[in-house]
Amino acid sequence: EVQLQASGGGLVQPGGSLRLSCTVSGVTLSDYGMSWIRQAPGKELEWVSGITARGGARRYTDSVKGRFTISRDNAKNMLHLQVNNLKPEDTAVYYCARERTVLSAWDLDGVDYRGTGTQVTVSS
To answer: Which phi and psi angles does 87 have, rounded to 5°?
Structure first.
């Protein structure tokens, strides 16, 4: 059974940083591209960032470029998202998600499985 469990969220002030992590089990992580997606209160799911199976390519949605960094450690079955210079509009539940292939579609269409999320709240 595939399990994707995100952690590392919390309450931070604007300009703060967090490191989100996703523990992956039940699947060989190196077989899949992965993404981070988020859902803000009252809004639809939003694709945030993706990374191909071996980390050769990464992309970000425009609103987080230069502030967020996605990375993966296939040997440890872990996915990470370093989030810096956080803004109130980044407040959301963040999920890690598995892509259908080794690549990433760079949007929600490529995601076939979403795990449990972690809450990020940016507020002064």
So the answer is: -120, 155
